[in-house]
Amino acid sequence: MKNKMIFLSIFLCLSLCFSSSKLFASDKIRIVTTTSTIADLVRQIAGDHADIYYIASPKRDIHFIAPTPKDVLKVKKAQVFVHSGLDLEAWRGPLLDAVGRTDLMWPSGDKQIDVSKGISLLEVPTSLSRSQGDQHAYGNPHYAMDPVNVKIMGNNIAEGLSNIFPHQSANFKKNADDLNQKIDEKLKGWTKRMSPYQGMEVVTYHRNWSYFTKRFGFMIIGEVEPKPGIPPTAKHMASLINSMKEKNVRIIMTESFRESRAPAKIAEATGAKVLTLAQDVGETQEGKDYISMMEQNIHLLEDALAQRKEVK
Amino acid sequence: MTDFFILMWKPLLACLILTGIHTYLGVHVIERKVIFVDLALAQIAALGAVIAFLFGFDLHGQATYWFSLTATFIGAIIFSVTRMRKERIPQEAIIGIVYAVSAAAAILILSRSAEGDEEIRHMLVGNILLVDLHDIIKMAILYSLIGFFHWCFRKTFILISTQPESAFKQKIPVKWWDIAFYLSFGFVVTSSVHIAGVLLVFSFLIVPAVAAVLFSEVLSKRLFIGWLIGAATSFLGILLSYYYDLPTGAAVVCSFGGILILLSFIKAVR
């Protein structure tokens, strides 16, 4: 009996402590996105008309997010769900199953926006054998690292929102055009600043940078991890170090949430520099929106490459 | 509060089903002093899945399930064969070895295959918050069948767990019953881990049973106390998870820890 009393008092305390908080501001469009980058683009296109919530913290590996009750509730109450499509967010399927709203499910739901529509994907597997892993069954999903793709993402968001809220479509379209223009302007500068390094060979930790390097004309000659998720083996590191020395590779690109020991070791052996670049908006202090995040990435690269030139 | 039930009834129901079977198995596990056997069996099942993966089967497919089950069966045989009548090597040692070797073997195999590491991690992590109704129904049916099987042969199962020596004397084929025990146990653990993750399953197995040991010597009473504690703690953990927006599985596990401390305290004061 004593136990029961204790449980009862715990529950009483708990129910006194809690007050239900308001989840969304009432008069705005409730939009949930998977990543902070998509949330930033939605913010730029929907403007003040939207209350936006994103699920994945930009400081975590997007593949390994465990949604919390609040995430489920937010999605349940969302009017629009915006996501990367493909299989970047491996947790998206189970999350939507738990939410149980077919109108948010990819690909046929009418309240979901897949921002990847119309983007030409890299590294699309030629055979869909599951033995080759199913993480990237549709192709490399890290397409937002190419600003040109971000323009397409913006247009997809504007189009999707217009379908759901037709009376605001002119506004969405205008904002998407503005975003396109801003990116075009910025991209000119970035391309110019990176042009002296065209054809430069680099090493990355994971295949996050394929779109970025393609845009700016770099060549990836290898990855720090031999296979996604598998820690670098001694043999793999040795061969990577050899080919880096041979080709005089000066840059190792990685992300803030990865382990830093293997890249540091490789950098020490080769004299290359490890650059931690931002993948998503909000991952670093400087990257408050997509353009400032990219600006920072380009700046870091430029800086590192200029230093290297002086050393040489 | 309605939001709470709309959102959390599935995880709560899953937790109650898990409490039902795992508290019962936990009582056995504590009597047998094989505390970590569930971790070892879950890891063996994951190894089975990895091997299926290596042969090119779909990780969520039927073939992989059978590979897992076969691996669990082999594990059950290992654990029943290594239970000596006169124990020279503690069985926990064997369990530890099986756990470490099967975990390492999975890493070795994966290093030879392409991607898939993430999927294997999913097999051992699970997410009780996102459990779907289909899984819950499947789990309820499977666990009822296993529960029924154990209930039919309850006398023998209890005897070989609590007094193996007298079972040997009565010429009961202890090894075969051990295989039956570990096999049904493996069945349960493999499916539970997939849904709730290793940590949560371990807590469901051990904590209610341990708490019950504090308060009673009688097996049936222990079972009843265990169920009560398991159900109440599940509810508490899920409530905490909801109101403080915590990862659900971890919130339930820590609630188990907290409740156990509280109960030990009560026991000590009394």
Q: What does this molecule look like?
A:
The complex is a heterodimer of chains A (312) and B (270). By secondary structure, chain A is α/β, with parallel strands linked by helices. In chain A, 45% of the residues lie in helices and 11% in strands. Chain A has 10 helices and 8 strands. Chain A has a 4-stranded parallel sheet, sandwiched between helices. A 4-stranded parallel sheet of chain A has the order 6-5-7-8, sandwiched between helices. In chain A, helix 2 links the parallel strand 1 (29-33) and strand 2. In chain A, helix 6 (169-194) runs parallel beside helix 10. The longest helix of chain A has 26 residues, at 169-194. Mean pLDDT of chain A is 86; it is low at 16-21 and 130-134. By secondary structure, chain B is an all-alpha fold. Chain B is built from 12 helices and no strands. The relative contact order of chain B is 0.16. Classes of the chains: A alpha/beta (312), B mainly alpha (270). The A-B interface holds A 2-3, 6-7, 10-11, 14, 17-18, 20, 63-64, 66-70, 72-73, 76, 90-91, 94-95, 97-98, 129-136, 226-230, 233 and B 1, 3, 6-8, 10, 53-59, 110-111, 113-119, 121-122, 125, 127, 129-132, 228-229, 232, 236, 239-243, 245-248, 262-263, 266.
